[in-house]
Hints:
The protein has helices at about 15-25, 40-55, 80, 105-115, 130-135, 165-170, 175-180, 190-195, 200-210, 215-235, 245-250, 295-310; strands spanning about 5-10, 30-35, 65, 120-125, 145-150, 185-190, 255-260, 260-265, 275, 290-295. By secondary structure, the protein is α/β, with parallel strands linked by helices. Helix 1 packs parallel to helix 2, helix 5 (about 130-135) packs across helix 7 and helix 9 (about 200-210) runs antiparallel to helix 10.
Amino acid sequence: MAQKIIIDTDPGQDDAVAILLALASNELQVLGITAVAGNVPLAQTQLNARKIVELAGRPDVPVFAGCERPLSRNLVTAEHVHGKTGLDGIELPEPAVQVQAEHGVDFIVRTLREEDAGSVTLVPIGPLTNIAEAFRRAPDIIERVQQIVLMGGAYFEVGNITPAAEFNIYVDPEAAAEVFASGIPLVVLPLDVTHSALTSADWVKHMAALPNRCGPAVAGWTDFFERFDKEKYGSLGAPLHDPCTIAWILQPDLFKGRHINVEIETTGRFTTGMTVADWWRVSDRAPNALFLREVDRDGLFALLSDRIARLP
Length: 312
Ligand code: BDR
Ligand code: CA
């Protein structure tokens, strides 16, 4: 039976590739996509999510709008990385598929109550606002979550939005702190992994040449947002942060990490949003996350090539 997942997202070009990878993989059943404010405001992220499901030929996958702002802070966005629309790089048509009337947080709560306990994995690839809000509204669902596989944080790579913090955690550190303290099994794909998941010029060319519409779309997106990382970090390509979550569910052997304690800094003078990862196990705090550090890059891109080619 396919693994049931909910993707919680703020697309974002790399979010878009993650969603395509999931929709292309018949090992997975995407129950729904919940949009959250992050890379760009909510009005844009829910619109982008609808464009992506249509691009993938999957208008049957419902898209929900979740929270408009972090639990207790003003929204910080990342148009400087992803462009004004969040999906700059290609033009996609206005989607015919409508956003669902139900709030994204209510969808998460309802689904976790309706599905068998321990059968649904949450895959947050944006700020953790919707997930934390769902746990606040319905604490009974916490023990029903199978696991959370999220993109966020950094330890050895430190930060990409402040010197100490990764974007998804920084935008809503209170939400992240609640999720990391929930007791749910957590799998964390931090910048330490995703900064190795860099596209190559050859791979982008290969995507552009696929005889479908999704391959060239992936090429257009990565072409756009690799500019930022090349200029800022001198990277060789675009980091496909968010697809690492779906890739871990499909092929966990591609990744290596440690089961350790990870705490979220919410009140630091310079370090708010930092993921304080006890990689060296120097504290006596109990492990709460599988914190990944390495990825088999060639294996990851082979998986992506194989799956994106299956799409329309
Ligand atoms: C994360 O932030 C966003 O810009 C990306 O979509 C990814 O989820 C990387 O820090
Ligand atoms: Ca994202």
